[in-house]
Target: Citrate synthase
Amino acid sequence: TGYITIDPGYKNTGATKSAITFLDGEEGVLNYRGYSIEDLAEKSSFLEVAYLLIYGELPTEKQFAEFEHEIRTHTLVNEDMRKIFEGFPVNAHPMGVLSSLVSAMSAFYPDANAQNSEAETQLHIIRLLAKLPTIATWSYKKSQGHPVNYPQNELDYCSNFLNMMFSLPVAKYNVDPVVSAALNKLLILHADHEQNCSTSTVRLVGSSHANIFSSISSGISALWGPLHGGANQEVIEMLEAIKADGGDTQKYINMAKDKSSGFRLFGFGHRVYKNFDPRARIIKKAADDVLNKLGINDPVLEIAQKLEKAALEDDYFVQRKLYPNVDFYSGIIYRALGIPTNMFTVMFAIGRLPGWIAQWKEMRVNKEPIGRPRQIYTGAPKRDFVPMSERK
Ligand code: CMC
Model:
């Protein structure tokens, strides 16, 4: 069977050629379709970036108006999906609910299993982009014992999501432009990150020609893990634990250095970035700005800053090139926006959706073969079957 090279975790194995995202881990560079993340976060909107990732170019005014209009007209979710949702327990994790309901979309749109035309695929893409925020807000509403909100299609993408989250039938919610702008920036920073764990999952599942909803649902499940997108929830829980423990950051740094503790400093380290994570830089500054603008004094921010400083001065972290990653400060902003901790990874999923879609589409358009890694067998040699009555 030829030569098999083992590379656990694919640390040095390229799985595909891709024209979507450029990442230079040594220099801390991240570009979507050639545009720097710094520029996009400052000057663009999340839907514009979604268009760029999926279709390859920034949209003209006309293209953008059409794209946004299409999304607006698909924000409503089939009422039968609500019935599925109602069966979940109130304490269900919102990520479990999200991946299940996106998977359920494949049952509601079974034509996605067929060999789709470009127009049909386009409709599935629009449905995903339009419905994910609506579905995401249901979990929060249920946790509060409140009725779900229907989308308000005169609102832009981020404001619509915030309105579905926070508006109540008894008290209209006015979307604060500071909040909506901060959300827009966070979603842009999460929109793609080349062949990370969840994206590779989407491509691998999709490589069997599984439908787009099932492929994206698998990506959501992969994102949930604490070593990947789930880290943003872990970070805030860790910072809160440090606060409750009297703010002793050194104790947690020592614990992270001690391999036998099994504890890692969440929000630190990255497979590819070895000098800094450019997203973390932008988010750190945004966290400061947003808290200032909203007049919030969050003691957890102080703990985060203290922890970051101590880690960056510690030999263990310096030698291993462990720097704060995108998840380190994002939770502090989400908290300031009123998003509950157990929904942080859902926010990551909403942001990453255009990237998953773009990567799924690229894989199919390029007619990539089914993903099928090999192995080196290390189990028992061939042996004879022993009937159960003779087994010791
Ligand atoms: N705390 C303490 N030690 C760490 C940490 C950490 N957060 N991260 C890595 N190390 C150590 C690790 O023990 C190893 O030490 P040694 O060489 O002595 O065995 C060395 O640094 C290299 O780590 P690795 O686990 O081989 O690196 P990796 O590329 O396989 O893992 C990572 C990358 C992000 C999974 C890891 O750094 C980690 O677990 N970080 C915490 C979780 C986290 O913040 N994840 C979010 C990543 S960014 C956004 C995203 O992907 O969603």
Q: What stands out?
A: Residues 231-336 form a domain with the Cytochrome p450-Terp; domain 2 fold (CATH 1.10.230.10). The pocket of carboxymethyl coenzyme *A is lined by residues 9, 196, 227-229, 231, 256, 264-271, 320, 322, 325-327 (CB under 6 Å). The longest strand covers residues 21-24.
